[in-house]
Give the backbone structure.
Amino acid sequence: MLSRKTKYGIKALTFLAQQEKNDPTQISMIASSENISQKFLESILLTLRKAGILGSKKGKGGGYYLLKDANDIKIAQVYRVLEGPIAMVPCVSLNFYEKCDDCPDEDACSVHSLMIQVRDSTLNILENTSLADIIAKG
């Protein structure tokens, strides 16, 4: 299940992508427009800034802004930054692989093969969807 953190992160990024000239936008404006707790949103935006997705400006006229064009920000990147692995089990993760303690043979594991299919389908959607795509569809 998608966490609120990731859902709100995507909503905030989409909001920022729709701002004219990519001017800095205050957290309070994003929070009120998207119905997100300002304190919670602050931590989400800070995480996205540290990951190089957002930039920020302090002081009067300050706020957050996208560092890249909305077409270049893929949802898979946002998901990994805010949520972690895309795979539902660690033994099929491409970036966060871990062997399962309870499985002696991954190749013979029915759950493993099913979760590879789930991972691949999910990854295909997330890697091929940008913020611009979400805006265009929504």
User: Anything to note?
Assistant: Residues 55 and 120 are 31 Å apart (CA to CA). The first strand starts at residue 54 and ends at 57. The mean pLDDT is 93.
